[in-house]
Amino acid sequence: MARRFVAGTTVEEAIAAVHEVNSRGMTVSIDNLGENVTNAEEARASARLYDQILDQIHARRLQANVSLKLTHMGLDVDENLARELACGLIDHARLSGNFVRVDMEGSPYTQRTLDFVREMHRPPGNAGHVGAVIQSYLYRSEKDVEELLAEGIRIRLCKGAYKEAPAIAFQKKSDVDANYIKLMMVLLKSGVYHGIATHDERIIEATRRFARQEKIPAEAFEFQMLHGIRRDLQERLVREGWRMRVYIPFGTEWYPYFMRRLAERPANAFFIARNLFRR
Ligand SMILES: Cc1cc2nc3c(=O)[nH]c(=O)nc-3n(C[C@H](O)[C@H](O)[C@H](O)COP(=O)(O)OP(=O)(O)OC[C@H]3O[C@@H](n4cnc5c(N)ncnc54)[C@H](O)[C@@H]3O)c2cc1C
Question: Of 161, 214, 254, 279, which shows the fewest CB atoms inside 10 Å?
Fold first, then answer.
């Protein structure tokens, strides 16, 4: 059932999915699924898998980068370990002309994740090889965007996938969307290459309209969507000449990711339940 959202459990399956998406004129970000690992060996194993993926991307000349979570690199186990592993992967990406996106997790990790990205972006040569994610549901995001842009850091803008308290996050969809559009405009005007990650047609239309109105070229940013969601819309945007990156998750630790995708849209659960009964 998770296959709708997850490309498989092995590197080979992920690479096959990248080939397929590349052949449709879209780039990819590969996510080796996993989060909140509880021991150093799991974190090291995850980093080794990312090294393999970066090597495969380079060897096969794929149009792809990688996305990772700091808790998958051992942030809950030992901050220095997470730093060592993430820095190693960013070095690898820099040497092969690639890019590491550090996904954003729940609010207990927001500040630490942004601090990490800023620290890893600073050494000479690393600029442009590591980027952050901002969630429009958090009140703090406008200020975070300002601080990241001051250092020229690439941002993926999304709405946010975790349950957050009213004290720190907008609860109404209309407020989350309004903040998204406000931040999207700041990003597009910044002159840095960012990712507009959403399947929301209204927001996508607002982005296209703003880009045209401000004469921001299509090559100055990219839309991003998740594997298995709104493929029709992904293809339509490419046909219209916009850039599209598909986030392809794979791996054995697919359960929390899958549950977030179900929670986002109750219709997914009905869809899956119906297919269960048909079998
Ligand atoms: C490339 C990418 C990377 C992301 N990275 C992060 C991250 O690092 N941290 C984080 O917190 N969140 C991340 N997210 C998830 C994001 O925060 C949202 O939870 C998710 O994208 C749904 O929000 P939406 O913008 O699509 O808008 P919504 O208002 O949720 O959805 C708009 C429309 O999109 C479609 N849709 C949305 N979700 C689904 C679904 N699960 N199944 C089927 N259709 C759906 C429906 O048609 C829906 O009406 C990422 C999303 C993308 C696209």
Answer: 279
